[in-house]
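Complex 387.
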Amino acid sequence: MDFSRVALSEDDESFRDDLRSFLNDIVTDEVIARDRETGENFDEGVHMALGAAGYLAADFKSEADGGFSRLRKRIWDLEIGRARTPWFHWGTTAMVARAVDRFGSAELKDEVLEKTLSGHFRLCLGYTEPEGGSDVATCKTRAVRDGEGWIINGSKMFTSNAHNASYVFLVTNTDPDAPKHQSLTMFLVPLDSPGVEIQALRTVDGDRTNITYYSDVRIDDRYRIGEVNGGWAVLREALNDEHGTVERLDDGLQKVAVMSEHVLLLAEAADKVAASAADEDSVKYRLGRGIARMEAAMSTPDMFGRVANAQIMRDVAPELMDIMGVASSLPVGEKGAIGDGAAEYVFRLAGPTGIYGGTLEVFRNMIAQHALGLGRPNYSPPVKKTL
Ligand SMILES: Cc1cc2nc3c(=O)[nH]c(=O)nc-3n(C[C@H](O)[C@H](O)[C@H](O)COP(=O)(O)OP(=O)(O)OC[C@H]3O[C@@H](n4cnc5c(N)ncnc54)[C@H](O)[C@@H]3O)c2cc1C
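Predicted structure with flavin-adenine dinucleotide bound:
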C-alpha cells in the first residue's frame, strides 16, 4: 500500500491538523535548541502536555482498548517526527510499561501504569553493564533475598533518561551458579530508592545518557516482574519489542523498520547539500547514489531495515561531508557551518545508532542465524594448519 495515496476522512484530517497545531505550540524553537544542546531527547513540558492531552495513552493502548486506529497511529508517528519532538525515550517507557502490564502484579500495575500514561512517570532500561551489553544474560548485578524484599548491588552503563525517570527496568542475577539464562530476575526499581546513584555520561553525538550505581538498594518483592530466575522470559519479550522483530500488520501503514526516523535527518542533510552543491555531474552522481540507497534502506523491513538504516547513515553522512569540504565539519549553530551542520550531526549520530539496542554486528549475526538459517556463529580461533 502506498501511504501517500491513502485518502483521509474528514475526522482523520482534523485529527492530523489538531495534532500538528498542538505540536507546533509545544515543540518550540527553544525546546528544539535546548534538546540539541543537552542531548536529552526529552522535554518535561512537552511530555507532560502530551500526557495531559491523552496522546500518550492513545499511543500505548490498542485500538480496541481506546487507542489510536492504525491510520491515526501512522499520522501520529509522522507528525511527532516532523515536529522534531524530543521524543526518543517514550519508546523505552512504553516498552517497559508493556512488560509491567504483561508480567507485573496487579499492585505494581496500579502503582505504575496510570501515572506513566499521564506522563508523570518515565521508565528506563537497565540492561547493559560496564563489562558488556551485547550478551545481556551475562549479568553481574546481584539481587539477594532479604525477608520479604530484595537487596540489589551492581552497576549499569548507558541507563538513558534515568535522570528524568521514576523507575528502571533492571536485569539482575539471582543465581550466579545457574546457567546464565536461568539466573536472571527482572525488577522495576524505584530510582528514588536510597543507594541509587545516577552519573551523567555524554556520547560522541552529544546524547546524554547515564551510568547508574546500586549499593545495597532495598526493594519490596512487589517490584519483581515475572518469576525468580525466570527473568529471561520477560526480557526476551521486551528485547523482541526493542529489536523491531515483533510481527507487525502488513497493511502498509506500519513503520517499516525501527530507527527510520534517523534516516529522515540524513535525507534532510542530503537535501541541503543538493541545494548548494548539485551543479557538477560528479556531485549529482554521488548524491543520487546516496539517495537511492537511503530510499532502499527506508523501505527495508524489520531487523534488515534496522541494519540498513544505521549502515546507510554511516556510509552517506561522510560522503555528504566530503562533497561539501572541510567547513562541513563545523557543528550545528557554529558560524560558517554548512547546511546548519546537518551532515556533521548525522555523521556523529550514525555511530551510536549502530550500537544502542544492539550493535550492527550482533544484528548481522541474528540475521545470519535466525533469518538465513546459517547456524550459530563460531567464535573459536581458526585451526592452525600444521605443515
Ligand atoms: C547512546 C546509547 C544509549 C544507550 N541506552 C541504553 C539504555 O538506555 N539501557 C541499556 O541497558 N543500554 C543502553 N545502551 C547500551 C547498548 O545497548 C550497548 O552499548 C550495546 O548493546 C552494546 O553493548 P556494549 O556497548 O557493552 O558492547 P559489547 O557488547 O562489549 O561489544 C563490543 C564490540 O564487540 C562486538 N560484539 C559483541 N558481541 C558480539 C557477537 N556475539 N558477535 C559479533 N560481534 C560482537 C560488538 O558489536 C561491539 O563492536 C545504550 C548505548 C548507547 C551508545
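The longest helix spans residues 302-324.
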